[in-house]
Amino acid sequence: MASRGVNKVILLGNVGGDPETRYLPNGNAVTNITLATSDSWKDKQTGQVQERTEWHRVVFFGKLAEIAGEYLKKGSQVYVEGRLQTRKWQDQSGQDRYTTEIVVDMGGTMQLLGGRATGAHPEESAPRQAAPRAAASVREPQAPSAPRPTQPAQPSAMPDYDSFDDDIPF
Amino acid sequence: MASRGVNKVILLGNVGGDPETRYLPNGNAVTNITLATSDSWKDKQTGQVQERTEWHRVVFFGKLAEIAGEYLKKGSQVYVEGRLQTRKWQDQSGQDRYTTEIVVDMGGTMQLLGGRATGAHPEESAPRQAAPRAAASVREPQAPSAPRPTQPAQPSAMPDYDSFDDDIPF
Amino acid sequence: MASRGVNKVILLGNVGGDPETRYLPNGNAVTNITLATSDSWKDKQTGQVQERTEWHRVVFFGKLAEIAGEYLKKGSQVYVEGRLQTRKWQDQSGQDRYTTEIVVDMGGTMQLLGGRATGAHPEESAPRQAAPRAAASVREPQAPSAPRPTQPAQPSAMPDYDSFDDDIPF
Amino acid sequence: MASRGVNKVILLGNVGGDPETRYLPNGNAVTNITLATSDSWKDKQTGQVQERTEWHRVVFFGKLAEIAGEYLKKGSQVYVEGRLQTRKWQDQSGQDRYTTEIVVDMGGTMQLLGGRATGAHPEESAPRQAAPRAAASVREPQAPSAPRPTQPAQPSAMPDYDSFDDDIPF
DNA sequence: TTTT
DNA sequence: TTTT
């Protein structure tokens, strides 16, 4: 009922393989993916461009797990917002091991982007524009009390920049 | 039921004045504050340190509006996560005007930090550590299906770094 | 040389029109775009899906301004990270007016995504995969001292999940 | 020189112990801390408030490592922005192990907040207000080309809300 | 109008 | 003025 602290992860990258979905005893879906984020930079010494790919373990829960399992494919470009969580587990020899994952549940978000996924099952791949709509649906419960405009007038419409820009002293 | 896009603002700064809370016809609270974020940098030409304060209009809705109205004071240091929204309105002469605000509702967060608020009503000021707990409570509905551990074993408990670190080849 | 506060905006959306680039007296580029972020939700009363588009004014400076001016087109899907800034200006009647923008400079980022831009000059449109590489180049100066691996072994290479997963007690 | 992807972590929490700083052969500082972020929620079944603390390994590099080593103490409340990185290493038995850390270097940020640190060395603890100024200094190189106002007039000054608010049709 |  |  309370919280102290912020634990937020924002990733935008490509999915490393087809997602794996399983179901908990209570029927809730859990989907695992690996996600690659790449960045590159010029080496100060050599002047060579260096590239580095970081791999992340992402776990979706609930409604987002279903959506991720259905729409994400190997190669999909995706935006993800979640939180860090480190799980403790025991390996075969009984030793404690730790795995850090990005948990994406109702407090998070997933947005499928325009990436050309190399689907394992391309024949059944949905039209990509379907995914983002579906994907976002889980955010709905997050803003029930939001001040959404229902009036005919749209308070947040764009200013009339054509006439307006003349006034802007850039 | 769907979403396409990300619209997120993260601010950490100081409140410019006591919050103003009002109530909508439906009983929901709305609280307005102004928030200052400062940054400084060394001028490349002069070598002088420059400072700049940016002021933001933040609007809380719902439960967070109540918490903000109760715990924030002039001077409070606060972390806020919300979304950008530009409202259109008419000034006295009937001209269209636009105001951009950071909306913080159930999809957002507020964390009161350790700042020494100069409360308008210091006598009634709650112990400051109470605020963050209360403040965060509104996030609860965001993670109802989250994979919270309810097992006796805490998967995410602090690793035993003392023994653990020995293995880490820093 | 110092900073107190956080002022961060993260947007992922579609560009509303071809970017407009101009040059400051010192030769630095400045590029303006408008960016739409959409979200939708189900109305609690009516059960109807509501949609809302928020428009943002984004201003790129420096190297990112050049990249944005070259690669962004009307319709481009783009990820942007910047900071909020409100400018004061005077309209024709001499009245003070304020415009809030998202400033994206060296402290920010831009990532062109997979969107199918409807370029004004499609014939000269670069292969879309070229853009993200170029776009990110401005981040280079941000991490010169970063602990990038230059050793033959890549510490952060993809774990061998195939063999590795066997140990993970999901 | 380029980048494709976003890898960003934002944490706000309390430091688990005094920071440990060491120096690389090239003289650069590296500082390690553990950081706790807590959140709590009401259990749907029991109605009981549950609390959970997540621990993170944070590694600072360069100038920020020096600042972190000097100003952070056990218990310090701190805001951190960095990126995820998983290191591979071998334990005593030669087995591959992985550790995920939040790397905070020039592309990141650190802000010491108002927390009452329980310093291991309270006698030598600097006045807390000194830290944030120092801490932020490392961000300077990130925005050298930023459009900072050098004009006498401050473009980003606060609107005169007193007279202004009357016009706002809330 | 905040804060350092 | 975008996008689905």
Outline the fold blueprint.
Four copies of one chain form a homotetramer.
Chain A: E1 3-4, E2 6-15, E3 20-23, E4 29-42, E5 49-61, H1 63-71, E6 77-90, E7 96-104, E8 109-112, H2 130-136, H3 161-164
Parallel strand pairs in A: 5-7
Antiparallel strand pairs in A: 2-4, 2-6, 3-4, 4-5, 6-7, 6-8
Helix pairs in contact in A: 1-2
Chain B binds two DNA strands through strand 2, strand 4 and strand 5.
Write a structural description.
Four copies of one chain form a homotetramer. Chain A is mostly beta strands and 170 residues long. Chain A has three helices and eight strands; from the N terminus they run βββββαβββαα. Chain A has a domain at 9-40 and 48-112: Nucleic acid-binding proteins (OB fold (Dihydrolipoamide Acetyltransferase, E2P), Beta Barrel), CATH 2.40.50. Chain A has helices at residues 63-71, 130-136, 161-164; strands at 3-4, 6-15, 20-23, 29-42, 49-61, 77-90, 96-104, 109-112. Chain A has a five-stranded mixed β-barrel. In chain A, a hairpin with a 5-residue loop joins strand 3 (20-23) and strand 4 (29-42). The radius of gyration of chain A is 21 Å and the shape is globular. The N and C termini of chain A lie far apart (47 Å). The interface between A and C is large, with 49 and 50 residues. Strand 2 (6-15) of chain A pairs antiparallel with strand 2 (6-15) of chain D. Chain B binds two DNA strands through residues 2, 4-5, 13-17, 34-38, 40, 51, 53, 55, 74-77, 115, 118. Chains A, B, C, D: Plays an important role in DNA replication, recombination and repair. Binds to ssDNA and to an array of partner proteins to recruit them to their sites of action during DNA metabolism. Chains A, B, C, D: One of its GO terms (biological process) is DNA repair.
